[in-house]
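Hi all, long-time lurker, first post. I run a small reading group and we've been trying to get comfortable going from sequence to structure in the token notation. Rather than ask abstract questions, I figured I'd post a concrete chain and ask someone more experienced to write out its structure so we can walk through it together at our next meeting. Sequence below, copied exactly:
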Amino acid sequence: MRCLELLPALRVNLFFLFLFFLLSPVSFGAEVFLRGHSRVSGQEVTLGEIADIKGTSVEKELLSSIRVVDSPPPCRERVISKEDIAREIADYLRENGISVKEIAIKGAERVSITSVCLVIDGDHIRKLIENFFKKNYPQYEVISVPDLNVKLPYNRYEEHLSLDYLGRNSARFVYEITVNGKTVKKFWIPVRVERKVKVVVAVKPIPRGSVITSDEVSLKSVVESKARGGTDNISSIVGATARRDFLPGDVITKSGIIPNFAVRRNQPVRVVYRSGAIRVELLGIALQDGVVGNIIKVKNPSTGKVLLCRVTGNGLVEFVSR
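-- Answer (accepted) --
Happy to help. Here is the structure in token form:
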């Protein structure tokens, strides 16, 4: 079989003669069978990724490495014709001064090339960040994360998430994607967060006008913006009357109840004074309404002095030293 020398100084007509041989259906020293569709990764598409090659080991190695076209963007498709592929092969051999036998290109007239597609969506990244807070900062709750959508032309990747900054209502993360130990994508992700506080919430429906019982409420961690007006003092809520309807999960706000005052303003109360083993009781007049646990002012009618006392029961308070 006649050999064809491909040198940089080839004349144009000789080059197209070589191209004719490439596209010829007759049997030659090496044969390239194009596949109709191929999935590829990386930045460039080589002949070995889109074709089956027959020939000597040297010919197969050489032809397989020839760049045919740039890869399409991740998750996209590109189509290249058999003629364009033949031209790329001929250009490569000519530019590198390589002498080979004539090559036959067979198979599909047009090759569809799809870039490998890995999609990392916003939901995945949000879950990573939420899990990070649950594990490391449970006193925070994630409010919002930007909706990222990352497409990668790789079969596998590694991801790394690290906290760059954390404030009262905001945080910033570094999200890095690596392939074979090399960084291919890196993002700085701003996140809105809120601290959580414990407040009394309804665990059952509480109708307006009903007296709140202990089995209808519990302490729960809630973000600060939803906890406004709430309290962590269950005893101040139990026994109170609901001013409005509360659904399970609703924060029981002070403005939403009529307190069950254990002590009423201008009403007599028993004042208990303790000092070690000594316990003294005296009569006082409450200057403020108070529920159990509240600290209110109480007047000693005998001396006219105003005392600070903690409400401990119905009509009962205990002196609090200053």
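A couple of things your group might point at:
The helical segments are 12-23, 47-50, 57-64, 82-95, 122-136, 224-227.
The chain is about 20% helix and 45% strand.
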